[in-house]
Amino acid sequence: MSLLSDNTTPAQAHGRGRFDATVELNRVICREHYVLRLRLPGGFPPSLPGQFVQLGCRPPGAPDGAIDASWLGGCEHAWQPGDTPPQAQQPELRERVSVLRRPFSIAGRGDDAGGSWIDVIHRVVGVGTAWLAGLKRGDAVDLIGPLGNWFTLPAGKSMGLLVGGGVGLPPMFYLAQALYEAGWDAVGFVGALTADLLAVTFVADTPPDGQGAPWRCVEEYSQFDFPTVVTTDDGSLGMHGRITRGLERYLSAQTREDAAKTVVFTCGPNPMMHAVARLSASHSVDCQVCVEQAMACGMGTCQSCVVKIESPQDPHGTTDAGRPWRYRLACTDGPVFQAKEVLW
Fold first, then answer.
1. pLDDT tens, 71-111?
2. What distance separates the 2 farthest-apart alpha carbons in the chain?
3. Which of the residue ranges 5-9, 86-90, 208-212 would you say has the lowest mean pLDDT?
């Protein structure tokens, strides 16, 4: 697999679609976080790190297949006292059901004689992800993908710093695989509020360094021979402080020549990515961000995942500092953007 340049035709235009998958594993990583591996027997279209899928977080076929369309046109219906009105027979009215799909970054993929598999990592925060958490091997899940654009590897660069906070880690894991195959070096940066929210697998008998030195202590990166800096806000594991503290320590130790070959790739909460972008700029290091926006469709229809991006061409407005901006969609124009273009 190779990462493509910015002017390449989007991969999803050649193969995205709706697919039926079955659960191959659904494993707890840490408190509230699961890694879900989905098997697609018929294969999955080409995908790249940064792209995502939209998962149906309810039994396939519900509620869509249960809707009685006859009453949508205003037809009259009669029922006896005590009976349930026909309109209330839909599953989303009878019980708590996640009607809209949910977006999840691809955390990894593989292709073999049995088709394809993809990994997603989710945290239980509501009815949809609670349904995902209860899935067992062999259960059915439907998905749409691959969607969105991807990280790119600029010419002349050879070092990637993978900065992932919270559920921003999945695209970093997939990217680590791509960097390894492209012959790049990399360092992972993993951060969370506290130790039991670190959604990674630690290498046995290799605890992370408390001063922020990169160690091969996280399996998702060490399998590619990449070291990791681990931080927790409360100091319960690794370096005490936010993930930007570990990144600042590393960038400050780089030579000018090192910085010229480095790209920071980041995904996580917007305040974290904004801080990472500022820090990268202060050290003259390129930075690409994978934004996390709420999405209803994931394909540009609902227009709900807008992001302000600097755009001299046909701007929607101008900032107080005089920068022209235009709304872009995270689902189709992104989710990956050049950090210097994002108006936080």
1. 445 556 566 777 666 555 555 455 566 678 899 999 999 99
2. 80
3. 5-9
- From CA 85, how far away is CA 73, in angstroms rounded? 16
Beta bridge partner(s), residue 104: 53
Whether 204 and 245 map to the same domain: the answer is yes
Q: Residue 3: left (phi > 0), alpha (psi -120 to 50), or beta?
A: beta
Q: Which tokens go with 294?
A: 């709420």
Mean pLDDT, residues 201-216: 95
Domain boundary among 256, 275, 292: 292
* Residues 62, 17 contacting (CB under 8 angstroms): no
Lowest average pLDDT, out of 64-73, 166-175, 235-244, 297-306, goes to 64-73
Reported pTM: 0.87
In the sheet that holds 306-310, the strands lie side by side as 306-310, 324-329, 317-318
Mean pLDDT value across the chain? 88
pLDDT for the residue 97 = 66
pLDDT tens track for 231-272: 999 999 999 999 999 999 999 999 999 999 999 999 999 999
Identify whether residues 255 and 228 lie together within a single domain.
yes
CA atoms within 13 A on the CB side of 221: 30
Please count the structural domains in the chain.
2
- Please answer whether residues 212 and 231 qualify as being in contact, where contact means their C-beta atoms are separated by less than 8 angstroms: yes
Residue spans of alpha helices (H) in 19-169: 91-94, 127-133
Angstrom distance (rounded) from CA 249 to CA 230: 12
For residues 176 and 275, membership in a common domain is answered with: yes
- Cβ atoms of 190 and 218 closer than 8 Å: yes
Residue 205 in domain: yes
- The whole-angstrom separation of Cα 339 and Cα 224 is 26
Q: What is the DSSP letter of 42?
A: T
Retrieve residue 87's tokens: 């309109």
